[in-house]
Amino acid sequence: MQVFFDKTLEKEFEKIYSKFKFIELKADEAYTQDLEFLTKRLQVFEPCPSICKKDDFNSTAIDGSGAEGIISLNDISIHLLTAAFAADKTHFEMGTTKKLNVSPPVCTHPEGITRLILLREDKKEEVWKEFLDFILYNYNDSLQDVVTRVLRDIVETAFKEKKPNDPVPKLTTEANIRMVATLIGLKLHKGDFKNFSSWMVSPRANAPRGWFEQFREVLEYSVAKALIDSDVHFKYIFIDGSMNMLMDPGQKQPRLASNYLLRDINQRALKNESCVVAVSKTTTFPFIYRLAIDLEKKLGMEKKWFIRIPTKSRDNIVLNILKDRPHIPPAYGVTYLFHFSSEVPILRIDLDEKWWKENIFSKDKKKEGENEVNLFKDIDWLARDVRYYGYFFDLAFAHNTTIVRFPERDDVAERLIDYFTEKGENPKMFIHPRRRLGLM
After folding, report:
1. pLDDT tens column, 218-261
2. DSSP string of 224-269?
């Protein structure tokens, strides 16, 4: 359809702009109060010189992509999934990085992994079986074992906070975990740990798009786990997105399968003395565009700064603009906003709360501030590549590797149709009706 730029469209522009300004003005007082608070908390820091004397370390980043429905036949659809990583070692004295030669067993090629999945509008139990098999095959662990590990850690951590002077009871079985959770008033879902489809939130059986996203996240976290478990030690492991947890009000148990894999890689990273850094380019943090404008006016365009977002439990403060967004900061996570360059919008990172408590937090607030500055000096240096100045270049490399463009998507589809044809299938069945009719 051709879009005509006439009076009708101008009226649509006007309506949308009016709604935008209404939203902005309605929350202006709340934002102004928060701006004053955040400005007081804001930490400006001087970056490391590009060439400096500093201990070198390894970093890696993982991103995922794919192509939905490259082939469809009635209620059957075949999807292409990809996940890629980039890994580098810093050379501070040379002002550069060196690509690391690491290849986790899960990867199908030097820079990542490619998978095909077949989904159909099937019974929920059958879709779940396919999903669980996919987790076991790629993550190299059953979802049941991952869920048990994560819930054991959640209950153990809560017990230590509630009863710091008592020995932690045994948490070897589901019954033990539930008993201790009840003892400390921690609510867990009634459904058996292994009966996932009864208590986990998942797409409908006839919603392949939703399942596609679930499978893709499994693939990303599988690559992350493989890198953590590899012979190479990474100081920082960057992943794309946030650490948001889907949880019911009043409960501390996540509801998504991918949440458990995310918690699991954070636990593994902590034991490995690695830091998982979840980076959001398009964060849903409200009024972040206003924040960028106001702080750049106040501080200048190229000042580097960060702010930790307060929480009720840690700071007894909730920002006015976040009162309807309880997922920011996420459960079990710590959120920062930061600014490295005027060329890049304000970004958000989430860190694992346990890692933060062990490596950043201090009762001595001066020491805590020094720990934060050292963290941001490190990650700022990893955002100095001239092509991606202000953004982490390993994440950019991983993204560019994993993204599936239309010509590649079509090429995979055609080769797959050729393969089906060699097996005796009619190729016309697998060509989209719109293409056969000349409509695409």
Report:
1. 999 999 999 999 999 999 999 999 999 998 887 889 999 999 99
2. HHHHHTSSS--SEEEEES-------TT--S--SHHHHHHHHHHHHH
Residues 388 and 411 grouped into a single domain: no
Give me the helices (H) in 54-173, please: 124-139, 143-162
The predicted pLDDT at position 438 comes to 59
Please say whether the beta carbons of 234 and 268 come within 8 A.
no
Q: Which domain holds residue 90?
A: 58-402
Residues 306 and 425 in one domain: no
In this structure, what DSSP letter does residue 50 have?
S
Q: Tell me whether residue 49 is in a domain.
A: no
Q: Which two tokens stand for residue 275?
A: 């830091």
Residues 292 and 431 in one domain: no
Please count the residues of the chain.
Answer: 440
Q: Are residues 423 and 317 in the same domain?
A: no
Contact call for residues 349 and 280 (beta carbons, < 8 A): yes
Residues 162 and 223 in one domain: yes
Angle at CA of residue 116, ends 241 and 440, nearest 5°: 90
In terms of Cα–Cα distance, which of 396, 314, 385, 384 is closest to 351?
314
Find out whether 277 and 8 touch, Cβ atoms under 8 Å: no
Contact of 243 with 332, CB cutoff 8 Å: yes
Task: Tally the domains of the chain.
Answer: 3
Nearest partner of 276 among 349, 370, 326, 219, judged by Cα: 349
- Give the largest CA-CA distance in the chain: 73
DSSP-assigned letters across all residues of 319-360: -GGGTT-TTSSPTTEEEEEEES-TTS--EEEEEEHHHHHHHT
| Strand-pair partners of 276 | 237
CA gap 195, 166 in Å, rounded: 32
Q: State the distance between the two ends of the chain, measured CA to CA, in whole angstroms.
A: 13
Other beta carbons less than 10 A from residue 54's beta carbon: 15
DSSP state of 120: E
1 in helix, strand or coil?
coil
**Mind listing the pLDDT tens digit for each residue in 278-313?**
999 866 788 888 888 888 888 888 899 999 999 988
Q: Do the beta carbons of residue 90 and residue 57 sit within 8 Å?
A: yes
Question: Do the beta carbons of residue 351 and residue 277 sit within 8 Å?
Answer: yes
Distances (CA, A) of 43 to 50, 336, 361, 380: 21, 11, 15, 14
User: Exposed/middle/buried for 321, CB within 10 Å: 0-12, 13-18, 19+?
Assistant: buried
So what's the pLDDT on residue 205? 66
Residue 144 pairs in a beta bridge with none
